[in-house]
Amino acid sequence: MHLWGTPGRVDAAADAAIRDVVSVYCRFMDNFDDAAVLELFTPEGQWLRHGEPPLRGRAEIAAWLGGRNRGVKGRHVASNILIDMQGPERALVTSYFMVVKAGPDGAPVPLSMGEYHDIFQLDQGRWRIAQRQTQRVFRAG
Prior knowledge:
By secondary structure, this protein is an alpha+beta fold. It has a single domain (12-139), classed as Nuclear Transport Factor 2, Chain: A. Helix content is 25%, strand content 48%. The protein has 3 helices and 6 strands; from the N terminus they run ααββαββββ. The protein has a 6-stranded mixed sheet with strand order 2-1-6-5-4-3. The protein starts with 11 loop residues before the first helix and ends with a strand. 16% of the residues are buried.
């Protein structure tokens, strides 16, 4: 039985804070604000990426972020965010994502779509990503 929509299932403050992290992640990625992206992860945070070696800890995540092509203008969009509180300091979060980049003529071109499967943890008074698993469903080209 699913409990979605049940009043009181999720703490409203935790819900808002977690949704904020999912949203600002997209903005920070699009603006190449690597320091801000890193702050969204716990110090030991892991990023399990579809078909790529896992990134473990902020140093590995920072190295990957620093290697991105900053000449490509794009936008990340997250939606369909579902939060399952596992206790006062842990939540399982799933969301859909779409990444769109600018094509040669400047028109938007879908790059990929998929799902984020996240484990959020309350860390130093802030909700942060302890683990993000990226599962691509579609990829252009």
